[in-house]
Amino acid sequence: MKVLSVIGARPQFIKEAVVGEQLRALGMREILVHTGQHYDVNMSDVFFKYLKLKKPDYYLSVGSGTHAYQTGTTMIRLEEVVIKEKPDVLIVYGDTNATIAGALVGAKLKISVAHVEAGLRQEPKDMPEEINRVVTDHISRFLFCPTKRAVDNLKSEGISKGVYFVGDVMYDLFLKVKDSIDVQKVLKKYRLQRKNYILATVHRDFNTDNEERLRNILTALGEISREIPVVFPMHPRTKKVINQKNLWNLLGKTRVIDPVPYHELVALLTNSLKVITDSGGLQKEAYFAGVSAIVLMPDTGWIELVEANWNYLADTQKELIVQKALESSLNKCPFEQFYGQGDAGKKIAEIILRHQK
């Protein structure tokens, strides 16, 4: 059996590291296509090195651009690869433009599409990632859900065939990586002390491209940094906007660093006091690490973590961000296995193999 996997951004590299290994372990031939959506070395190449991902068979060199440009260019270039390779299954991950482009190409060429991390839903509904995810779910044959709530979301939209609760592949990798990291080496590199700093990330376009929202976030980080160190691995998109708008002064003492490799991010995450983020992946990885996240969004696909008081939806309300960051703790519920048992990758590979025979 031949499987073609489409990746283009950091969360997809992480998921592919788990699923690809399991596909190959079961004897399936995998063709890996990198769209080039994340072309920065720290956002792409280093993940391949540290996650030991196989070298992509095809690199589409799409790069940055509008949503239409990224999606359309990916479709045009990917279609040529798919026609040439004739895979039995096409796998897409998450909610990026690479995801929707891959799903559309596969569906139109009548190839079974498998969506890893299906069924998540959140506001605002016009968010590009939400549009990508919803459309992908409605044209996929295999819908691999990370949570039982995701299964329920699909059912409410009339989708029940081909839906599987498998758990979260990011949990698989987190468990594998967390005990193999030299934590002290990472903390020393960034001049940090365990449980005495806050980790922050910002990259969503509805935050970076809206100056008022971005100002609120940066100002909050600046205020927090007066009380406790804030380390901020900065996404290229965010850095570009801050340069254009000349907003650096808002960050105060915030310690800005380049994007970090996955193993370093896990080390920084597990030893942080709290996390402030608009990343869907990081707010969930914080839970894996037993750390609370302040979410810079009006809604989240991981709403179960908000309901369990592990995470808090502050959106871009400056006072709330600062308040929750400096609070001693949230009244958290006990840890639950919302995201499976750490064997999601194995389940996904077994289901694909079983149903394509």
From TrEMBL:
Assigned keywords, A-Z: Isomerase
UniProt xrefs under InterPro entries: UDP_GlcNAc_Epimerase_2_dom, WecB-like
Signal sequence range: none
EC nos: 5.1.3.14
Pfam families: Epimerase_2
SUPFAM superfamilies: UDP-Glycosyltransferase/glycogen phosphorylase
Domain named UDP-N-acetylglucosamine 2-epimerase: residues: 28-352
Keyword Isomerase on entry: yes
GO molecular function list: UDP-N-acetylglucosamine 2-epimerase activity
Keyword NAD: no
Similarity field: Belongs to the UDP-N-acetylglucosamine 2-epimerase family.
Identification of the protein by name: UDP-N-acetylglucosamine 2-epimerase
Gene that specifies this protein: wecB
